[in-house]
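Researcher: Here's the sequence for the chain we discussed earlier.
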Amino acid sequence: MIAMPFVLAGALALWEGLVRWQAYPPFILPGPAVVARKFVTLAADGTLLRHTQVTLVEIALGLLLGVTTACVLGYFLGKHRAIEQVGAPYIVASQSIPIVAVAPLLVIWLGSGILSKVLVGALITFFPMLINTIVGIRNVDRDLYDLMRSLRASRWQLFCLLEVPAALPVLLSGLKLSVILAVVGAVVGEFVGANVGLGFLINLARGVLDTPMMFVAIFCLVIIAQALYWMVVWLERRYLRWQEA
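Model: Thanks. This is the structure I predict for it:
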């Protein structure tokens, strides 16, 4: 973390040096100053905020739907191996279809509104969270189950006091990947069909050769992904202190 400002400053210096050395025009590779001016322009007129808000809503709803569904189904499959063996081939087959192939179908069926983007985000975050949930539930020590039952713990107490804390490290690892994929899912959905959002902004910039605007949208997506990732890291540090102890 301490070295991050120096790494960022070095990257900006190399970027500016490359642009000056090769004398690239802004529509090929704009310099950091050009991108910064574009950022200020888009932020000042409200364009950037409007598109960012829409993408954030799509990411949040897609992540909520995908993670919730995956955790519920993953818990059920983790507790019932026979059903998991029957359903696993179908789940894997559904995930073998590229999301860029599914997104156009969802836009055709559901329209270019927010629903299709949310479903794309849910689909892309579903599988990694499902696998981590199954693994987390199955990694709970059987001796701990016997101990809790000997203390006459109820089913709800087993779930809250044993299964969730024991599976939490694996669940949070899956959530780290899911938050990044949720950003990708929202952008893919906006690429296919949208009239607002950071993905739409990238498409618009590509069409009019406004490369600085494209860089601004891409950097915003990177910041969103980084923020979501570090939020999960914070949750991990907060709720897994017992592991360090």
